[in-house]
Amino acid sequence: MEEKTSSKLKSMLDSKKIRNIIIVVGLIGIGLIFLSNWVDFGSLTSGKGDEAFSVKTYSTKIENDLQTVISKIEGAGKTEVLLTMENSVEYVYLDNSTTKTKEIEPLIRGVLVVCEGGDDPVVVERVTDAVTKALDISTAKVCITKLSE
Q: What's this model's pTM, rounded to 2 decimal places?
C-alpha cells in the first residue's frame, strides 16, 4: 500500500504540469515575502498611508485650538499661544497586538500664553486651569502673561 502511494506521488512530481505549478506558486510566495518588506499593509487599511506625522503640524494644531478656546474665556481677549515639544513622534513595536506599532505623541515641555487679560489674576487662573486640563500638564509648565499693544 505504501509503495503504491509513493509511486503515485513520484509520478505526479514527474509530471511537468504539476512541477510547473509548484514552481510558480513558490515564486509567487517568495515575491509576496519581498513585497511585504516594502509595503506597509497596515497603512493601506487604516487610510492614513500618505499622511506623514509632523511634530510641527501637531504643535501648530494644538496652538491654534488653544488660541481659539482661550480667546473665548471671559477677560482673556486677543490671545497668542506658543508650545514647546520635548521630542518627536516615537513608534513602539508591540509584542502581543494585531498592529505592528503604536505611535506615541511628543511630550509638551511648556506652554506660553500671551493674552490681553494676562495681568488679571482671575483671568490668569482661568487660562492656567484650561490649559493644564486640556493638555494634562502641570501648572509649572504654563506661563500666562499680558499682551503688549
A: 0.57
